[in-house]
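Now read the record:
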Amino acid sequence: MPKTLDDPTAEVTEVLQAFIRNACVNDGTPDSGGEVRSADLVTGYLEGSGLELEYYEPHPGRRSVLAKIEGSDPTAPGLMLMGHTDVVPVNDSGWTHDPFGGELIDGVVWGRGAVDMLNLTASMMVAFKHLADSGFKPRGTLSYLAVADEEASGTWGAEWLLENELDAVRTENVITESGGFQMGSPGGIRLPVMVEEKGALWTKLTVRGTPGHGSQPHRTDNALLKAAEIVTRIGKYRPPAKVGNTWRSFVEGMQLPPELADPEKLDAVIEGLPIGASRLFHSCTHTTMSPNVARSGSKVNVIPDHAEVLIDIRALPGESAEDVRLMLQDACGDLWSEIELTIRDDVATASPIDTPLWDSLARVSGRLCEGSALVPMMMVGGTDNRYFRRAGAVGYGFGLFSERLRFEDFASMFHGHDERVDQESLRLSTELWTALAHDFLT
């Protein structure tokens, strides 16, 4: 069990390594994850600091832990530091080092979750413990939530907590992943804050056919063939570009070419960018549709009578499930009548930037990363912030990463191979949370 050390960087390194080695792999099934292992780690680490710990386990093994340093003023706004403890599966063959080894090599910690987001979960916990041990007395309540099941939409984690334990987790302000990577601009270093995230309107298409013998395919109604054509059409479909306030502010703050804020021109500019920026900028300005899973058939010599396709659809702010349905209808054309459709209605959320939390983050990060400034940015994936925003909280995604962690690498490691984070980034994030608590809550 990691212990409190005189060197916070070494301490958060050990905590991160322990989180990685717990291998809380969430494959989307109810019995995966096993976050109870990391919940036990959190409990063992925070015990002895005079903290009241609360545990929530709506499904066996899917445990979340909540700790609080109560504020002295019930009317003062609180702040929650929230990190998830689960990680996505890996393909071992694509890794340079053991994905669950948590190895420290040349000042870098390797392993699944090192970037997404165990580094922040660890640094938040270390900062929280040191604040508690120091006798920190905030005006508003400071909370730390190590939450389960973020990687599969929060069914046993944040979503469940907001639906069943709202009074326990209610807060005015939340910070979770990601943001805080250093991006160069003509005006100096810019630190993105994730103030908005796209809707995760995951969709299932079911296509029906007629079974038959695989040795006689002529003039048969093969559901798989129809599904393949539908997938091809969706893959070629191009929703129009849209520019929202967050993207416009990001372009202005980064001093990017103004064409990137023009819906008529940005597609041409995006095509000429390096692959990492091209993908991100496209996702920030378009609803995206990615068919990722297909299931069909029961036996090689049986023509399938049904096929299922799962599509990861990420919708822009302001777009509803009905808007997505109309896009799919447009994409599928004359095959639309062949489809049974199920869409998860999980629309986009956003928080304003004219808030005391934004101002506090700007002050603190400006001191820790000299010459930097914040810029608002859209999170094109999903985080647990959406549940807290819908409950009335200001929710930002932020951390603080060193220059050693380039944006291109940062982006590619999310759910990819060779996740890793340097110790300088761990130090910066730990110092960020401590300084933010003092600046915002006292």
Remarks:
- The mean pLDDT is 95.
- The radius of gyration is 23 Å.
